[in-house]
Amino acid sequence: MQSGFARARRVLLLVGVAVMLAVSVAPAVLAAPSKGDVNGNSAIDLGDVILCLRFAVGITTPTPEQKASADVAPVIGWGMPVGDRRVTIADAVRIVQALVGLVPVSELGEVPTNARFVGADVCRACHSTTHEQWQTTRHKDAFKNLKEYEGGKNATNPVCLACHTVGFGQPGGFVDEQTTPGMGGVQCESCHGPGSLHVQGGGDKTKILAYPKVLAAQVCGRCHTGSHQPQYEEWLQSKHVDIEPHVASYFAQGRYADRCGICHAGDAKVSNDYLGRGFPDAKTLQFAVPCATCHDPHMATGNDTTPKAGHDRQLRHPTSSQDEAKPNLCGQCHTRRSEDVWSKTSRPPHYSGQFTFLIGTGGFLPTADQLKTAHAFAPGQCVKCHMYMKEFESEENPAIKGHTFEVDLRGCAPCHTTEVAKTLMENTQKDIMSQLEALKSRLDKWGNWEFISNGGPNDPSNTQDPQHMIPEEIKKARWNYYWVLNDGSEGVHNAKYARELIKTANALLDSIGAPK
């Protein structure tokens, strides 16, 4: 049993899986091109000057990726600010000097290879299936959508073209619709980088950004950032960017790529579950829960149960499910382990059982072990409360894309107003935690009880595992206590089920005369 109820009060909502920061398994840091970047032939163009000036005067805020890139030299490389250093007019002046040839480009930072963009039609020759799948996505129509948005006023805006076309301003990349008609939209090279050397090398994967490095969230974060699409900034605030240090230490030792990596390392899950390559060496794991853990980068899937009209978020699994054997998207990790049953005595249930708890199973009940809550039938289930979204209105009122995964009570509408939801949540948590505290007190008293219920002492000659001497009623009651506690929502996920589990636990203790 855990000592001290303070530990019981830890809120463990959606304990995440994330980047391994504290161990020798170093996350990959990409020197990826950004909007208005240095060209692939090491040339500086006007886009670099414009971007740097926008940074210097505060019109444009550097993205987290631009701030964080550790692979470029000081000052400006690829048109990016480096580290947290503020971009100044002096930086813009040096970019202009490089543009007119007064300063060698090499002094500005790392420059890319001389690879050129070739377009998705060239990729199709070898990757026909993936190309066909890609055509079902909104990425394919990104330039078309830009032309249709707000009457097409941004269809020639360099800041927008950098994400809505492929290779804009770079060798072989998008110039304009007439000159390069096949380079519109988000294509293969938008993520994998310019592909000419890859093609010339007969598919040499060292010449592009390939698996596993292409899984890095920074790749998606180049465009899914800012006031319109802030998914990357939100994700950086989520618990998917942290990891339990002891799990990271296992990976550093080459252990548990399968057991822990399946949820605590996105590259392990993608490799085994989606690429069919099995689990990689744990020491090679680089990522936690990057975007491609949940999203299929290549195809529309139809798995979004609450889609925006005309959108497909390319989710790998549906966002709703009533079947423990087929969990929803979050439940791919936030579900109980197969060995998590009341008869298990080695340790309490894992902290990942939120989906299982939501649909009302996993604990011990004397009757049918499934008590569902209305929350289990809410459209999107976890997404409903943990991924509240709103569209961009202005720079002062930007979009919200729900990728912090923190509860936002505005998501409780239309079932509850924000005020009602807040009151219900607080009252439920207070009630459930009070009942859990009382249940734990009873279990502690039983654990400190010197004699068994009929007045005789425990058998000191029994040499079996001490757990063998614990009555089943205690094991079941203890399991229910931990099952409610380790869900982490303090009853909110399924209050009806939580109360029934605690009620059953107390009845079990009563049946053997355990102290109150």
- Judged by helices, strands and strand pairing, the structural class is mainly alpha
Count of all domains:
4
- What is the chain-wise order of helices and strands? HHHHHHHHHHHHHHHHHHHHH
The poorly predicted ranges are 1-42, 63-85, 105-112, 453-457
- Give the strand content: under 5%
Instruction: Calculate the mean pLDDT score and round it.
Output: 80
Largest sheet: none
Q: From the alpha carbons, calculate the radius of gyration and give it in angstroms.
A: 27 Å
Number of helices: 21
- Beta strands, count: 0
Helix fraction, binned, reads 25-40%
Shape: elongated
Could you give the distance between the termini? 17 Å
Layout: helices, strands, pairs:
Elements: H1 5-8, H2 46-57, H3 64-68, H4 89-99, H5 120-124, H6 128-134, H7 142-148, H8 158-164, H9 188-192, H10 196-200, H11 217-221, H12 231-236, H13 245-252, H14 261-264, H15 266-274, H16 291-294, H17 354-358, H18 382-386, H19 418-447, H20 472-487, H21 495-511
